[in-house]
Design a protein that fits this description.
By secondary structure, the protein is mainly alpha-helical. The chain has helices at about 10, 15-20, 20-35, 45-50, 55-65, 80-85, 95-100, 115-120, 135-155, 160-185; strands at about 40, 65-70, 75, 105, 110-115. It has 10 helices and 5 strands, in the order H-H-H-E-H-H-E-E-H-H-E-E-H-H-H.
Length: about 180
């Protein structure tokens, strides 16, 4: 594991970062200094206590998306790959492969959760409906039903179907005419 770390000015000079309290900024720097070569660490609370930061500092880093927490207690520095790049031959791969598999690297180099991971984190407890989940089943079902209705409506109004309706009317008219002729006989 490398002993030196770098920080990209594009991240730490942003208004979003500088608007955070100094204790929160310090926590970010300390977490980044102690993360492994891919930006993961399993003891963020230890670092938090060692430098005298509060739980609010950690919550603020999560809320502002500077770190990504996992249920296992492991965290990853979201902008790690923007800050630090190591040659493959000098890099020690992370031992947190399960957590790493839940992430993707964006075009700008930032980590983010894979979309299907969001839906698994939105599972309601017991028999309660989840209100903060962006991928709710009832919303998807409603949209699917609307899509099916729109497709059926378009199929009914296509020129091919209109022609069939006209042909049916002509056939009915002929049938009525034939029946009247037969009736006269």
């Amino acid at each position: 594991m490398a002993e030196k770390r770098m920080f990209a000015k594009i991240i730490i000079d942003s208004d979003l970062f500088l608007d955070m309290p100094l204790s929160t900024q310090a926590l970010y720097f300390h977490l980044s200094m102690r993360a492994d070569d891919e930006g993961f660490m399993n003891n963020p609370k230890k670092i938090q206590r060692a430098i005298g930061c509060t739980d609010d500092d950690m919550k603020l880093l999560i809320a502002k998306s500077y770190i990504i927490p996992f249920k296992s207690g492991v965290i990853v520095i979201k902008h790690w790959l923007i800050h630090n790049t190591l040659r493959k031959d000098r890099m020690t791969l992370t031992t947190y492969t399960n957590e790493k598999s839940m992430l993707r690297v964006e075009d700008n180099g930032a980590y983010s959760m894979i979309d299907n991971q969001l839906s698994t984190n939105c599972q309601p407890l017991d028999n309660q409906a989840s209100t903060n989940c962006p991928h709710r089943l009832d919303k998807i079902s409603i949209d699917k039903n609307r899509l099916d209705e729109n497709i059926e409506e378009k199929e009914r109004t296509t020129p091919k179907n209109k022609k069939n309706v006209k042909d049916n009317k002509n056939n009915n008219a002929e049938a009525v005419t034939l029946t009247e002729k037969e009736y006269d006989k």
